[in-house]
Amino acid sequence: MKCPVKGETTTIPAVMGEFCPACGEAILDAAESDRVMREMKAFAKEVNAAVVANPR
Fold it and tell me: Taking the CA atoms of the chain, what radius of gyration do you get in angstroms?
């Protein structure tokens, strides 16, 4: 699953759930949703730290 943040993108591997072939929306169980959200938040934190350290 791709995770874009402020122009940067990462891929969260091995996301398990049901995915809509038309729009890509995902339905995850609670445990998988928690895992994905933790990884998304960690990536956002990295991107935000890089922006603060290297303002454009």
Answer: 13
pLDDT at 56 over 70: no
Per-residue pLDDT, 10? 95
How far apart CA 35 and CA 10 sit, in angstroms, is 15
Q: Which two tokens stand for residue 46?
A: 């990295």
Q: Which helix (H) or strand (E) holds 27?
A: strand 26-27
Would you say how long the chain is, in residues? 56
Instruction: Give me the residue spans of the domains in the chain.
Output: 2-53
CA angle, corner 22, sides to 18 and 23, nearest 5?
75
Q: Is the pLDDT confidence value at 9 over 90?
A: yes
**Angle subtended at Cα 14 by Cα 47 and Cα 33, rounded to the nearest 5 degrees:** 70
